[in-house]
UniProtKB/TrEMBL annotation:
Protein name: Nucleoside triphosphate pyrophosphohydrolase
Pfam family, one: MazG
Hydrolase listed as a keyword: yes
Keywords of this entry: Hydrolase
All residue ranges annotated as the NTP pyrophosphohydrolase MazG-like domain in the record: 33-106, 170-229
EC numbers: 3.6.1.9
SUPFAM superfamilies attached to this UniProt entry: all-alpha NTP pyrophosphatases (SSF101386)
Alphabetical list of InterPro entries matching this protein: MazG-like_dom (IPR004518), NTP-PPase_MazG-like_C (IPR048011), NTP-PPase_MazG-like_N (IPR048015), NTP_PyrPHydrolase_MazG (IPR011551)
Organism: Paracoccus pacificus
Length: 265
């Protein structure tokens, strides 16, 4: 049950959002927005939450979670203005869903089962909710980042036995897909080249799954590392009154290696 201060702050946020959208006294920018224009911000805020968690930036996390909550409130306010639904409907729907999908907590099912079994039971409940003949890959959202969606599709298929035995077989497949990409490289068919590149990335995501690695997190880490080391190149050149455009690949590669060694020291 929500504490009084939580209820009051949520009510305050809902009132602020309503004021921002007021057609006569609200903010012109907020009034002009719709679901489609706000959706990209919703995705961006979710990534910023993930980024704060990845960096263990606990002092930043309340603000980032607040920004994400604002997105939910924003969508609910726009929906309420046209009578589609309101914030209470959003909260009620997810509460009902959580209760229905956790009979081992809110019902009379036993909690004496593994986390893996609970995941399988969750999927069975979702299939019943969807009704009709449920396909294994149903419900994996198209709007997910491609690497995350690949992982979810592969996990779903693996639950019914469609999976390689282990990383060794996936590595063999990576070698095969790499050869096919190399063969397609000299082709004039760019669509085919793109397809082969996608196949290789899909299998790389599968390798991450077999190694218990989150590919999105791994790539975010690689992006952060690249940023650090490139900025180290810029800083080294700046100390000489120069910029990267004043350098060449050989020098920048040497500075990159120096930054790499400094990180490991």
């Amino acid at each position: 049950m929500a504490r009084p201060d939580e209820t009051a702050e949520l009510e305050r946020l809902l009132n602020i959002m309503a004021a921002l959208r007021d057609p006569e006294t609200g903010c012109p920018w907020d009034i002009e927005q719709d679901f489609a224009t706000i959706a990209p911000y919703t995705i961006e805020e979710a990534y910023e939450v993930a980024d704060a968690i990845e960096r263990a930036a606990w002092d930043e996390l309340p603000g980032e979670l607040g920004d994400l909550l604002l997105q939910v409130v924003y969508h609910a306010q726009m929906a309420s203005e046209t009578g589609k639904f309101g914030f209470a409907d959003v909260a009620r729907t997810v509460s009902d869903k959580m209760i229905a999908r956790h009979p081992h907590v809110f019902g009379d099912e036993s909690r004496e089962k593994s986390a893996d079994q609970q995941v399988l039971d969750w999927e069975k409940i979702k299939a019943v909710e969807r009704g009709g003949r449920a396909r294994v890959l149903d419900g994996v959202a198209l709007g997910l980042p491609a690497l995350t969606r690949a992982l979810k599709l592969q996990n779903r298929a693996a639950r019914v036995g469609f999976d390689w035995p282990g990383p060794a077989e996936v590595l063999d497949k990576i070698a095969e897909e790499t050869r096919e990409l190399v063969e397609a490289k000299d082709s004039a068919d760019h669509a085919h080249l793109t397809e082969e590149f996608g196949d290789l990335m899909f299998v790389m995501a599968n390798l991450a799954r077999h190694l218990n690695i989150d590919p999105e997190a791994a790539l975010r880490g690689a992006n952060a590392k690249f940023t650090r080391r490139f900025e180290a190149i810029e800083d080294a050149l700046a100390r000489q009154g120069r910029e990267p455009r004043d350098s060449d690949l050989a020098e920048m590669d040497r500075l990159w290696n120096e930054a790499k060694l400094a990180e490991r020291a």
